[in-house]
Design goal:
The complex is a heterodimer of chains A (248) and B (347). Chain A is of the alpha/beta class. Chain A contains 11 helices and 10 strands. Chain A has helices at 43-51, 72-77, 95-102, 104-108, 114-124, 126-130, 141-154, 171-186, 198-204, 222-225, 229-236, and strands spanning 3-14, 17-28, 32-36, 57-62, 65-66, 80-83, 159-163, 190-195, 207-212, 215-221. In chain A, the strands form 2 sheets. Chain A has a 6-stranded mixed beta sheet with strand order 6-7-8-3-9-10, sandwiched between helices. The relative contact order of chain A is 0.18. Chain B is mostly helical. Chain B is 76% helix and 2% strand. Chain B has a two-stranded antiparallel ribbon with strand order 1-2. The chains are: A alpha/beta (248), B mainly alpha (347).
């Protein structure tokens, strides 16, 4: 399978402090790759740099092309999309407006099929349809995450980067979100998933990277990492069989 | 003062207030989307009034040269950036917007001006000559400063004000101008005489406000501007570029300014530097809404108009002082309220 996203030697520094040291990562087309690691390991920084929100050094190759000089908006227009940890919704606007704005780049290109996609999002998240006239700022945590996902889907992503999609959500909602992630892959979207909820992430992913203090310390098939003693000890807890439901 | 005078003053105040309301809305819009405290909004007003006055005299307005020069400067900056970043494929669009369009408008204005076209054509031409200046000002002064602090943006905004005022003197000259009233119609309404001119100004302002409201509520570009104001990062993540939002905002501001200038042209004699004071009154109005609330800003602007009109009756020499002193209670109230908000945050 060819890689839709390749990251080579990606480094990000906040002032003099380097938060990410030359990370490498490959996202094969149509797969789910997860990056797990503790707080402050540089996971969010990595996604922000790939998206172009942070200045970085190194190469980000998307669909075979170096996107270093593309602004965030240009990357979105090409189908490289991020759902950030803070969701970044338009809180003072309605749910429907949030979703419609997800397709802004497509409206500019006069693309068709936007209404059909809006319908598909409502079908996937019936609760958003119920609340379409409500302001986004009044939604519950789970609904906000669904809206963030729905808004990202309206951009018609080829690569969807999800930063802590389960953060602060109730266990049932977490399961729902991971179900949706698995569904999305079936529609051909490649997914780069950053999670603290390592168990859930490893269960849904094909390949995984472990990031610690800015370095990739371990990588491999998700299935093999889930039984890796070091991963079990650090991220899954000693009682490997018990369910860890909340990462936050 | 009897009722008749009071009503007359109120009518005057409402008329001016309607124009200030437009300016206040433009200032709020520019601030929430770009974080720029837009001091030079008044310059668009004087450009608008002076352009219309020139056209009515059958002269080619100075705006023509101003527009062509600003366009060339913008295209030059775009060109240098495009060469440096190796992105020449964006240049045709820039050349079209900043060179071809201004030249075409200049040719049209030069051809039309001596032919004394009907008033409506003159008004449309005035708006067309000023609107493109908005995006150019944004491109030249503010686009390179997208990450700058509000304070830096304010300093640049003041500098842009002086530059635009100076250019106004160069291109329009020091003479003032006043256009004839759009209409001489008067209505008797009980004890009060309502002038058609006042109704026209108020009606045009209300119409423009409704159009703006529909633009922000119903169109994707209007929603994109609101989204940028609400959450800049979120907007970028759905592909709304900060530069696009900025250019669109300044285009709207220029358009609103031009219309305000056209409306005020028959009411007051406008010089190249009159815009500043008019813009400041819009600014006082917008401060009533803490520069974030559109309805409060419009209301504040109408209050400013009223205050000015009654102030000029009671103490004509002090009318500006009265208007600007009105800022003090508003600011005290806002600062009291904002401390309260901070306490809420700490809880």
């Amino acid at each position: 399978m060819s890689a839709v996203l390749e990251v080579e030697g990606l480094s990000v520094a906040y002032g003099k402090v380097e938060a990410l040291h030359g990370a490498n990562l490959v996202l094969p087309a149509g797969s789910i790759v997860t990056v797990i690691g503790p707080n402050g390991a540089g996971k969010t920084t990595m996604l922000a740099a790939i998206m172009g929100l942070l200045p970085s050094q190194g190469i980000v190759r998307y669909q075979g092309r170096d996107v270093a000089r593309d602004e965030v908006e240009a990357r979105v227009a090409q189908g490289l999309v991020l759902v950030p940890e803070r969701r970044e919704l338009f809180g003072e606007m309605t749910v429907a407006d949030n979703l419609v704005l997800g397709a802004f780049a497509r409206y500019r290109r006069r693309e068709s099929g936007i209404d059909a996609d809006l319908d598909a999002v409502y079908q996937r998240f019936p609760r958003l349809r119920e609340r379409r006239g409500q302001l986004a700022g009044t939604l519950s945590g789970g609904e906000r995450q669904m809206l963030a996902l729905g808004r990202a889907l309206m951009t018609r992503p080829r690569v969807l980067m999800l930063d802590e999609p389960s953060l602060g959500l109730a266990p049932l909602v977490v399961r729902e979100i991971f179900q949706i992630i698995a569904d999305l892959r079936r529609t051909g979207v490649s997914i780069l998933l950053v999670e603290q909820n390592a168990r859930a992430a490893l269960q849904v992913a094909d390949h995984a990277y472990v990031l610690e203090t800015g370095d990739v310390v371990l990588e491999g098939e998700a299935r093999s990492l889930i039984t890796n003693p070091r991963v079990i000890e650090t991220y899954l807890g000693l009682a490997a069989g018990s369910r860890r439901t909340s990462a936050a | 003062m009897d009722v008749q005078i009071a009503l007359l003053l109120a009518q005057d105040g409402l008329t001016n207030g309607a124009i200030y309301a437009l300016l206040a809305l433009a200032i709020v819009l520019v601030f929430v989307v770009t974080r720029v405290l837009w001091v030079p909004q008044g310059e668009f007003v004087s450009y608008g009034a002076l352009t219309l006055a020139s056209l009515q005299l059958g002269k080619v307005p100075g705006t023509v040269w101003l527009l062509v020069c600003a366009g060339l400067a913008t295209a030059l900056v775009d060109g240098v950036v495009a060469v440096r970043e190796g992105r020449l494929r964006r240049m045709p669009r820039s050349l079209l917007a900043n060179v071809v369009l201004p030249l075409a408008l200049a040719a049209l204005a030069t051809w039309l001006a001596p032919r004394n076209p009907p008033l409506l054509v003159q008004i449309l031409l005035t708006i067309a000559l000023i609107v493109p200046l908005g995006a150019m000002v944004y491109r030249l002064a503010f686009q390179p400063l997208q990450r700058a602090s509000v304070l830096v943006l304010l300093i640049v905004s003041v500098a842009v004000h002086f530059a635009m005022q100076g250019l106004g003197l160069v291109f329009f000259g020091p003479e003032g101008a006043r256009t004839p009233a759009f209409t001489d119609v008067r209505f008797e309404l009980g004890v009060m005489t309502v002038s058609g001119q006042s109704l026209l100004v108020i009606g045009a302002s209300v119409f423009l406000i409704v159009v703006l409201y529909l633009f922000f509520e119903r169109t994707i570009y209007g929603k994109a501007l609101r989204a940028t104001a609400v959450n800049r990062t979120g907007a970028r993540l759905v592909g709304i570029s900060t530069s696009l939002a900025g250019k669109l905002t300044f285009t709207l501001a220029a358009g609103i300014g031009a219309v305000s200038g056209i409306l005020i042209a028959p009411i007051a004699t406008i010089y190249y530097d009159s815009g500043f004071l008019i813009g400041l009154k819009g600014f006082v109005g917008s401060v009533v809404g803490a520069i974030v609330s559109y309805p409060l800003a419009a209301l504040g602007a109408v209050l400013v108009g009223m205050l000015e009109s009654f102030g000029s009756f009671y103490a004509s020499a002090l009318k500006e002082v009265i208007v600007f002193t009105a800022l003090l209670p508003v600011l005290i109230w806002l600062s009291l309220r904002s401390r309260h908000v901070e306490e809420d945050d700490e809880e």
